[in-house]
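Shipment paperwork, digital attachment
Item: protein structure file
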Amino acid sequence: MTDAELDAKFMAQASTVLSIDTSERLLRMCRNVAGLANTGRSIAHVWESR
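Attachment content:
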């Protein structure tokens, strides 16, 4: 599966429960997970801001 295919699959699933904007923010965060100082806090912030 290519990155583009994986991103499309993620967006198809995430956008059923999150807005497109929130889904895109979460996808970017997942793509940069190694650069996050606190993964749990970052994801919680996106989830709470939906």
